[in-house]
């Protein structure tokens, strides 16, 4: 069965860094474009970053461009999101997505002093 399991979330101070991981199983990971979404309290879920099957092509929301980096390791079936210079407005539940149909359950990121 398809599984996407996020990890690495937690509490971090403004300006700090965090790396999220998404462990994938139950499907051919290398054949799927991957992405990270987030949903803050009272707001709609939004695309944070996307990555092509090979990892050669990326795209980012303007709000995170220059601070976040999406990457994948196809040999390990794992997706990553490196988050630097975190801001309180980055506080949200972060979700891993495979292609257009598979979602993880999310991991909480809280940026607060």
Characterise this structure.
The protein is mainly beta and 113 residues long. It contains no helices and 11 strands. The protein has strands spanning 3-7, 10-12, 18-25, 34-39, 46-51, 58-60, 68-73, 78-83, 92-98, 102-103, 107-111. The strands form 2 sheets. Strands 2, 4, 5, 6, 9, 10 and 11 form a 7-stranded mixed sheet that branches. Strand 5 (46-51) and strand 6 (58-60) form a beta hairpin. The chain is globular and about 40 Å long.
What characteristics describe this protein?
globular, 4-stranded antiparallel sheet, 11 strands, 50% strand, 113 residues, 7-stranded mixed sheet, mainly beta, single chain
Q: Overall 3D geometry?
A: globular
Provide the succession of SSEs: EEEEEEEEEEE
Q: Describe the largest sheet.
A: 7 strands, mixed
Helical content band: under 10%
Instruction: Report Rg.
Output: 13 Å
Average pLDDT number: 97
CA distance, first residue to last residue: 40 Å
Query: pLDDT below 50 for ≥5 consecutive residues: which ranges?
Result: none
Number of helices: 0
- Strand percentage lies at over 45%
Which secondary-structure class do the elements indicate? mainly beta
**Strand elements, count:** 11
